[in-house]
Design brief:
heterodimer; A: 5-stranded mixed sheet; B: about 150 residues; alpha+beta; 5-stranded antiparallel sheet; HATPase_dom (chain B); Anti-sigma regulatory factor (chain B); HATPase_C_sf (chain B)
């Protein structure tokens, strides 16, 4: 009858939605390390089986990104690029952006958009465009 | 002894899994919000806590986090201790360097966390474990900038 409260410690897999040729991933709340790593595998599997040419990762519901989650996001984007698709990260909260820069994690080479609508537009306009490699070589 | 200025609300949390890391983040945010930290400051201290708690888990083999609210006169702050009984840190100065890592991460944990708080200190001995202490103070809203008011 009553659902258990969504306490940390009870991880649920992150859903990956297909919108045409784009995979939309909406991260919410506090992501456990294991869930983030599972997501990385889910996304690359889905690209392999669905011929998606873009991935939008919406982090507007995420209130902290630490170096672990930042690294997983960067690795997802790198893996997606190797599979001939494009990743756009969107919706980062201002406080999270400020904190990431101070932490020293600026995620070079990762394409960003202000919100999910703009991210989808960006990919729809030019799905083939792949972000150029950064001089630092990514991550 | 003035009980009002030093509340005894110290919270200890175990760090033994990634679910514990999430719980530490949750509790630190709760305390920070109650003490009056602004959103950006809350985000910074929770992120620092996440980095340090992960170090405790990954490098220290687990341990505990302690949350101490600080009330010094009108000032409000938070002291966090991350304690493990792991191998310790051989060269703290090196471990504090951006990009230095032994754990396969980005090497931003200690050095990055230090930038997100007001104070960070490390007590460690090889083989004796590590205690990392951080302190952050609530900053008041800055006064009106000259020229604007």
């Amino acid at each position: 009858m009553t659902l258990p409260p969504p306490v940390p410690g009870n991880p649920v897999a992150v859903p990956v939605l297909a919108l045409g040729n784009i995979l939309l991933v909406t991260l919410q709340g506090d992501l456990h390390d294991g869930m983030a790593e599972q997501l990385q595998q889910d996304i690359t599997d889905r690209i392999a089986h669905s011929a998606a040419d873009g991935v939008v990762i919406d982090v507007s519901g995420v209130d902290i990104v630490d170096s672990f989650l930042g690294r997983v996001i960067a690795e997802i984007a790198a893996g997606v690029r190797l599979m001939a698709a494009r990743t756009v990260l969107c919706g980062m909260r201002p406080a999270v952006a400020i904190t990431l820069v101070e932490l020293g994690l600026t995620l070079p080479g990762l394409e960003t958009a202000l919100d999910a609508a703009r991210a989808l537009e960006l990919i729809a306009r030019d799905p083939a465009a792949v972000a150029p490699d950064t001089p630092e070589g990514g991550t | 002894m003035t009980p009002a200025s030093e509340p005894a609300t110290v919270t200890s949390l175990p760090i033994g899994s990634d679910a514990d890391l999430a719980w530490v983040r949750h509790q630190v945010r709760q305390f920070a919000a109650e003490l009056g930290f602004g959103l950006v400051q809350q985000t910074k201290i929770v992120t620092a806590a996440s980095e340090l708690a992960r170090n405790t888990l990954v490098h220290g083999g687990g341990g505990q986090a302690q949350i101490h609210p600080l009330h010094h006169g009108p000032a409000r702050g938070l002291r966090l201790l991350f304690t493990d009984t792991g191998p310790g840190i051989r060269d703290v100065e090196l471990a504090m360097t951006d990009g230095y890592t032994t754990g396969g991460g980005l090497g931003l944990g200690l050095s990055g966390a230090k930038r997100l708080v007001d104070e960070l200190s490390v007590e460690t001995e090889p083989g004796q474990g590590t205690v990392v202490t951080v302190v952050a103070w609530v900053t008041r809203a800055p006064a009106v900038r000259p020229g604007l008011g």
